[in-house]
Specification:
This protein has helices spanning 2-29, 35-56, 64-78, 81-93, 97-126. The protein is an all-alpha fold. Helix 1 packs parallel to helix 3 (64-78), helix 2 (35-56) runs antiparallel to helix 3 and helix 2 runs parallel beside helix 5.
Amino acid sequence: MRAFLLVGLGGWVGAFARYTMDRWVIHWIGSQFPYGTLLINLIGCLILGFLGTLARDRLVAIPAEVWLLASYGFLGAFTTFSTFSFETLRMLEDARFLAALANLLGSVLGGLLACYLGAVIARSLAG
C-alpha cells in the first residue's frame, strides 16, 4: 500500500509540474510547436538517466521508496510520451512533415542524448 501512495504522490507532483512548465513555455515561446512537451521529455530523460545510472551502477544507494516516488511517480507523470505521439500525429495529419520530423528526432535522439548526459553527470559526481 505504501508503494502505491508513493507513486501516487510522485505522480501528482509530476503532473502538476508538467502542466505548469508547459503553460510557462507556451506563455514565453508560443504554441506554434510543442516546445513544452519537447523540453519536458528532455528534462525527464535527463533526470531518469541520472537517477537510473546512480542506482544501476551502485554509485549511490537509492532507497526503494525514493525510486518509486521519483521514477514511477514523478517522472511517470511528468514526461509526456503519449502527448508527444499525439502532437506528432496531428502535425502529420496537417501535412506539417518537417515539424513532425523535427519533433520526432528532437524527442527521440534528444532524449537519448539527455539520458546519456545524465549518466555522464552521475558518474562524474560519484567518482
